[in-house]
Amino acid sequence: MDTSSSLHLSWSGRPLSGSAQLPASKSESNRALIIQALAGGGQLHNLSDANDTELMQRLLAEPATADTLNAEDAGTVMRFLTAYLAITGRQVLLTGTARMRQRPIGVLVDALRQLGARIDYTEQAGFPPLQLQGRTPQPPAEEPVELRVRGDISSQYISALMMIGPQLPGGLRLRLLGKVGSRPYIRMTQSLMQHFGAQCRDLGEVVEVRPHAYQPADYTIEGDWSAASYWYAMVALAPAGSSIVLPGLRQYSWQGDQAIVGIMAQLGVVTEFGAEGVTLTQQAPALAVEQDFTHCPDLAQTVAVVAAATGVPLVLTGLESLRIKETDRIAALQIELAKFGGALLDEGDGRFRVPSAAFQVSGQSIDTYHDHRMAMAFAPLALRGPLTILAPAVVRKSYPQFWRELGTAGFTVTEQT
Ligand SMILES: O=C(O)C1=C[C@@H](OP(=O)(O)O)[C@@H](O)[C@H](O)C1
Ligand SMILES: C=C(OP(=O)(O)O)C(=O)O
């Protein structure tokens, strides 16, 4: 699909039913690929077909002589590869899209420099591109190096450092400073590292990694809970009597975005776990909802759109990291919600509010801002009226089959060039 095209979406008015295929988790996939490369083997099953994951695979397979690697718009690829390339002593320029060159990476580079890596900024200090100078970190062997790392910008720096910890002669101790966001992603890193034989403890303010080598292991990636959130939104917005089955999700997940189960229970969706995955059905929503997104930032757009469309007043906190993701997601939400009569109001002190307001879906065009989650969070509104999504190919970052799955579920999906 051409990035310049648009998609017209509409719905017949009957209840939603059947099942939908999810991609595999890109967060699990991209960690497993880095760890597999460091472990020197093991089989990974059900890897994501997301561009972020295919990109990670391609870049890891590049010959050591490659002089430039392009992480495109993939945060995990940029951050995890920076640490991986530093520990493996590669001399290479690591770059990304224009937006990636605005997403900060100074916290990670400072930490790697303290370990002895030589990394230079080629444009703006603190941001990609990075020139890695091929000097392997060589901290003293006797004891773990202790690094102080801010946790309030991105947890991806912490995950990146954790994953190279077993390769350091004395291991690594990370002292996390400030408010630590996206904590479940740190725990996911720990769980995957342990699965591959590493010794790693998350003690809250401190994360310890022992210098104990990874062992090759097999791992089957779970379905992606962030991607599941869009199907939750569809069930919340669909006509009465709707349901959907999502195979490939586990009841005991390593993904923090499983928080969507509890959040959507308040916005009218019941989750039932079975052997094959989950079944989503409808129930009456709560009168008002308050939700902290500090640890599940990728769910904020989905939930804001559902609240606006269903008229359930929503208070959102913990949105700090949204401004430095694929786009400024707060600004993008404000502009797009306004097209329907909705709003995301900044109340100060980190509180935002989606008020209950008249909300009408009647042929609006949604700008997607190079952000897959803008496209997927607004698409479910097509259940309430016709809608056009601009530059729909953005979904390839995490859920390339999203539009095909909407078609299978019964949406009329018409490409316009
Ligand atoms: O580690 C990961 O796989 C991710 C961590 C989160 O980022 P932050 O830690 O920057 O919030 C999340 O938003 C991103 O989609 C994936
Ligand atoms: C923020 C995201 O990804 P990343 O930071 O890995 O680019 C996302 O997928 O919503």
From TrEMBL:
User: Biological process (GO) annotations?
Assistant: amino acid biosynthetic process; aromatic amino acid family biosynthetic process; chorismate biosynthetic process
Instruction: Quote the cellular component terms of the Gene Ontology held in the record.
Output: cytoplasm
Q: What does this protein do?
A: Catalyzes the transfer of the enolpyruvyl moiety of phosphoenolpyruvate (PEP) to the 5-hydroxyl of shikimate-3-phosphate (S3P) to produce enolpyruvyl shikimate-3-phosphate and inorganic phosphate.
Q: What is the native source organism of this protein?
A: Hymenobacter elongatus
Under which name does UniProt file this protein? 3-phosphoshikimate 1-carboxyvinyltransferase
Query: Is Transferase among the key words of this record?
Result: yes
- PANTHER family listed in its UniProt record: AROM/DEHYDROQUINATE SYNTHASE (PTHR21090), PENTAFUNCTIONAL AROM POLYPEPTIDE (PTHR21090:SF5)
Classification via InterPro entries: Enolpyruvate_Tfrase_dom, Enolpyruvate_Tfrase_sf, EPSP_synthase, EPSP_synthase_CS, RNA3'P_cycl/enolpyr_Trfase_a/b
Active-site residues, as the UniProt record annotates them: 298
Q: What is its EC number?
A: 2.5.1.19
Q: Chief subcellular site?
A: cytoplasm
